[in-house]
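Figure S4 source data
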Amino acid sequence: MEEFRTLGTGRALTRDGGRPDGRRMRSATSRSRIIRALISLVEAGDLAPTAEMVADEANLSLRTVFRHFEEMDKLYLEIAGAIVSRAEPLIGRPFSSEWPDLLPEMIDRRADYYESVAPFKRALDLYHSRSPALEAASADIARLSRQVFLSRIPPHRMPEPERLEAMVLLVSIDSWLYLRHVQGLDVAAAKAAVVTGLRALLV
């Protein structure tokens, strides 16, 4: 996931001889403001903000924003980065019980996390089919979810492959968004549905 956090930071901002390149520094500053504006708008519910909206939010000229919108897939990689970075504080936190008693606590945590990143994931889903880089980022997010879930299951308690894959699907953000935004369940009902499904697969 390192590529999300370092995206765009490797560009040289100095001229030969080490003197600052003002044009490149201004461009990097503008890009940073555009990214912050894009994330802010998406988080507020505008999943596909226009260049005009971003320009207004970033307090930049429309011409400046249009230049950067030409690399929209790179801007949306920052959205993928926001999804990953918000997961990092949760990954190593211990649970108060052991497998499988930890399932309700696990789903409580995932629900809070999924609710916080839902606008980012829905925005990413709008664009990921247009860009191999965004498709790869979406796949990386799914792999991270799977790896974290598998790490909570003791090796000697690992379910058979068919049940395991069904459990991985149940705890995914895609399943959560389906329950919340297609089925129309509230948070409590969606959590109950996931926990019930997981317990049924453990029988």
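Figure S5 source data
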Amino acid sequence: MTGQGIEKGTAGILILILPFAIGVVFLYVAWRWLLGAAVLLLALQVWQQYQWRTLSDRLAPTFNQLLKENQGCLTAVDLALAADLRIETARKFLVQEAARYGGQEKTTESGDTVYYFLTASAIGSIFEADDLATTIDVEAMEEAELDAIPQFNKVAMPRSLALIQAELAKRLSVHSGTITKRKTDPSFPEWSCKKDPEGIAWRYAPKQKLFVPLDLSGS
């Protein structure tokens, strides 16, 4: 009985030691491969971080220009179109910049994600609680500035509001990037008139960076 007990105890110890011994042998034989794999993974991570920093530096001027044009309102599609990026890359960059500069992220009814950044040009704007949109009264603009906008109808729409790009895109049910590409087109008023739910034509005022309604009839 004693001999059998000793044999069982020895067998139990061997069962516990055997996996440990196999592990030690494996590490002794393969440690160079394991170390090489770890170095490669670390090098790959460093290289990816370097590539991302380089891309971020390249995108910074485009990002800043879009913020200036859109008064701090930007979507991933806007950036992707302007910088020729994949939409996933543009979204990742905007998430990074929003975290860095305290930008606000909001999902619209259509499912698009809009990022709002507080810029110098937007500090004086009024942020609405529901959609963080900004509207600027046309009457606050100087008469000379309004007169410089062709065919602007101040009589038919005395309380008209000038809109920023994000607001006009929402009103016309198009993406902000579409407005960016079309706003300097001579046919923009006719195109916007067809898209507008009330048949109002819009013209871009580059000096004020606003979109104002106008009368295409000329009356």
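The radius of gyration is 31 Å. The first helix runs from residue 2 to 69.
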